Amino acid sequence: HTCAKAVATGTTSILASVVFPEGKNEETLSLLNTIDKRVGVKGIGAVVEGIHAEGPLICDFGGLPRNSSEIGATEFGNLLDAMPGLKVMTVSPHVASKTNYQVIKMLHDRGVVPSLGHDRQADEQEIVDALSVSKTQPCHITHLYNVSKFHHRNPGLVNFGLLDSYPSLSKYDDVVAPTVELIGDMIHVHPLAVKLVLSSRSWDQIAFVTDCVAHRSQAHRTITYDGRQIKVDKENNVVKSCDDDTLVGSCCTMLDIFNSLINVLNVPVGKAFMMLSENPARFAKLNNVGTIEVGKDANLVMFDHNYNLMKTFVDGRMAFRTSLCRKKSVVSTESFDESFNM
């Protein structure tokens, strides 16, 4: 259902985000098996290209269900074996430090991207050590700002995520600057804070994600999420916990983020596409998508001159066509050329 709907908002590829609620190991393993069967399957809308595991090695949960982060190396290896489609895993540096960062090394060794996040507890040394595990494979940071810390004397993940390079101090000699992502609904992260990242980081090091967990049409309805009640705040396009209004996710789409980037933050169109398509694919090591090149999947989005979505193509086949196309027989080639000349 999600894949079929996603193409209507210009999304052609998806990483399925998985969480690990405590006491539901069998249900989680069953879900992983179901997702694994869908990885790479074409013909039903957007393609699930793999898994993003948001946990279980995290120490600050935010809107996620609680889980145990007490996992030994053998058990962790077994969990990775159960996720052959795993591309990215969020790990807290504070938790990873208890394994002497062995879990991050295991991810690197398997070609999985360690994404640091869900951690307000990690101190500077723990973050430095996590970022120094590999000199050739950079880590990523999961939804920068959210469930992480910035401090002017005691640096947190946000401090490290805001910089392409670090001061000339010996403690930073082995640190590889991480790539970063931001939730682009302009609610999880204020536009001023988004602008700060766009000003401080190279744009080829930034990606935007939706954190979408529900559709805005579900407003005024209560949804059960891991035994908790959540609700859609249609006015702000986000999803909150019914108990305490904690942000659980968003209702925004990649198309919403695109419009915010070009209309609110004045990002050039080509650079916006880079941060919505090329960069996310590269960060997740998805070599078959992200750019228009010979040999890659023919995933395309087509806009009119006002950047209204007209058509979505997945693997060379039209997966979505707006009703506007029935009124316009030709889509502006000028806008198409401008959009994709990055």
* First-to-last CA distance: 32 Å
Order of helices and strands: HEHEHEHHEHEHEHEEEEEHHEEEH
CATH topological fold name of the largest domain: TIM Barrel
Largest sheet: 7 strands, parallel
Overview of this structure, please?
It is a single chain. The chain contains eleven helices and 14 strands. The protein has helices spanning 2-6, 25-38, 73-81, 93-97, 102-109, 124-131, 157-161, 191-200, 254-263, 269-283, 333-340, and strands spanning 13-18, 47-54, 86-91, 113-116, 140-141, 179-183, 206-209, 222-225, 228-233, 238-241, 247-250, 300-303, 309-314, 317-321. The strands form three sheets. Strands 1-2-3-4-5-6-7 form a seven-stranded parallel sheet. Strands 8-9-10-11 form a four-stranded antiparallel sheet, with no helix packed on it. It has a three-stranded antiparallel sheet with strand order 12-13-14. β6, α8 (191-200) and β7 (206-209) form a beta-alpha-beta unit. It is globular and about 55 Å long. Keywords: Hydrolase. GO terms for molecular function: N-acetylglucosamine-6-phosphate deacetylase activity. This is N-acetylglucosamine-6-phosphate deacetylase. InterPro entries: Amidohydro-rel, Metal-dep_hydrolase_composite, Metal_Hydrolase.
Quick overview:
By secondary structure, this protein is α/β, with parallel strands linked by helices. The protein folds into 2 domains: 287 residues, Metal-dependent hydrolases (TIM Barrel, Alpha-Beta Barrel); 32 residues, no CATH class. The protein has 11 helices and 14 strands.
